[in-house]
From TrEMBL:
UniProt key word GTP-binding: no
Natural source organism: Tachysurus vachellii
UniProt protein name: Uncharacterized protein
GO cellular component: Golgi membrane
Compartments (UniProt record): Golgi apparatus membrane
Any one of the GO BP annotations: galactosylceramide biosynthetic process
Membrane topology of this protein: Single-pass type II membrane protein
Predominant localisation class: Golgi
Family named by the database record: Belongs to the galactose-3-O-sulfotransferase family.
Length: 437
């Protein structure tokens, strides 16, 4: 008996097999790769014990007890005062001639893709850096491969109810899931029935649920009771030497100063990337509770590290902490009086120097910026300008060719071709059309 298929059937099977292989390869290149359920951060740092030449030229004052740390990894989380921390780090690194691992052609490392070394500007195998601090989706082995073994890892968290409120409004024009909510208060409608409006596979959906857990490289769709969440939190606590809390920003900075052996002047700051008060939704206690419940994993993460922060404050000394915070506030007030015209942040259209206007959400101008005084004495002009410079412009000054504001929508589309692909749902293709037009 002849068990062979007819020649035409065999050809059809072969063609079908090849088509399937090609389709799978295309799909793998077109969809961002996510680090899901990674529950440990293995230490693999090929550049351990290497000290970049520029670090040796730094002029740090050694105290009797500690030496300032110069190898720093800051995981810049979303909507958690991280732009303010970024400005502090950029100034410190620039002042001391540190070598930055900077993003290539934008202000983040191809977020929301999981971080890879090749996303670093001018990366070459074996390259070693002092500082990495821009937005990324954390991937410990790839990050560690760029940094010396003594690098200090830290990040910042914020109450997830406030993070959700800010993220919902800031990114609403680039999250198609929110476009289908027709009520006057979309935020309230979403929180009243989140499962009705949320799809974990939706374009940019990660902005709407457990965004900090996602930033840290984990699966943001897990439930708080899942054992994987506790394991992830333990892994984060082991990898990051310090986690700041945005609601206790000044206390966090004092503890950071102590951990890094920096000086008070290294920590001076002006609030960056703040929103116009009228653009902020005031959450009722009920909505705040619903937002925390919806972002239950981030809420669990936040409570854990808020407790560790206050354990560190107690060890530092409450009275001593109050005194140090007061010193920081006094120095910040003096710098504001020296640098800021009018003493406060202003609306985007009221910023006189166009080069100092901050990046705005697509289709809005809700982010405040600063006017610098014109009569600042020469020794202070440079530091004032750096403290007031928005993130995009600062990165440009450091040599990153960031994408222009006029290309924001195009940038959003090129980061996720799935939205406009032939495999997209009809709703997503409509979203693609709206973004392109």
């Amino acid at each position: 008996m002849n068990h062979h298929l007819p020649r035409s059937s065999a050809h059809m099977l072969m063609l079908g097999f090849l088509f399937t292989c090609i389709t799978m390869m295309w799909f793998s290149f077109s969809v961002p790769t996510f680090q899901v359920n990674s529950l440990s951060f293995p230490v693999t740092a090929p550049c351990a014990n290497k000290t970049p030449t520029r670090q040796k030229k730094s002029s740090f004052s050694k105290s009797e007890h500690c030496v300032p740390k110069v190898n720093i990894m800051f995981l810049k989380t979303h909507k958690a005062a991280s732009s303010t921390v970024l400005n502090i780090i950029l100034r410190y690194g620039e002042k001391n001639g540190l070598k930055f691992a900077l993003p290539n052609g934008q202000n983040d490392f191809s977020y929301p893709d999981t971080f890879r070394r090749v996303y670093v500007k001018d990366y070459k195998p074996g390259a070693c850096f002092n500082v990495i601090c821009n937005h990324m989706r954390f991937n410990a082995p790839e990050v560690e491969a760029l940094l010396p073994s003594d690098t200090f890892f830290f990040t910042i968290l914020r109450d997830p109810a406030l993070v959700f409120e800010s993220s919902f409004h800031y990114y609403k024009r680039v999250i198609p899931l929110t476009w289908r909510i027709h009520g006057e208060d979309k935020l309230m409608d979403f929180l009243n029935e989140p499962q009705l409006h949320f799809d974990s596979n939706g374009f940019n959906s990660f902005y709407l649920k457990n965004i900090h857990f996602f930033d840290l490289g984990f699966d943001n769709t897990l439930e708080p009771e899942d054992p994987l969440v506790d394991r992830a939190i333990r892994a984060i606590a082991e990898r990051f030497q310090f986690v700041m809390i945005a609601e206790h920003f000044e206390e966090s900075l004092i503890l950071l100063k102590d951990a890094l052996c920096w000086q008070m002047d290294d920590l001076l700051f002006f609030n960056m990337n703040t929103r116009r008060p009228t653009s902020v939704s005031q959450l009722t206690p009920e909505l705040r509770a619903k937002a925390r419940e919806w972002n239950g994993v981030d809420w669990k993460l936040y409570r854990y590290f808020n407790a560790t922060l206050w354990a560190k404050v107690n060890a530092y000394g409450r009275k001593r902490m109050e005194q140090e915070v007061q010193k920081l506030r006094q120095k910040n007030s003096k710098m504001a009086a020296l640098c800021i015209s009018g003493g406060m942040a202003v609306e985007d259209q009221n910023i006189r120097d166009l080069s100092m206007r901050p990046w705005q959400p697509v289709g809005e101008s809700s982010i405040l910026g600063y006017n610098m005084k014109s009569n600042i004495e020469q020794p202070f002009r440079d530091i004032c300008r750096k403290m007031l410079t928005p993130e995009i412009q600062y990165l440009t000054d450091l040599g990153v060719e960031t994408w222009a504001e006029s290309g924001q929508e195009k940038q959003i589309l090129t980061r996720s071709p799935v939205l406009c692909s032939t495999r997209a749902t009809p709703a997503d293709r409509q979203s693609c059309f709206l973004l392109q037009n």
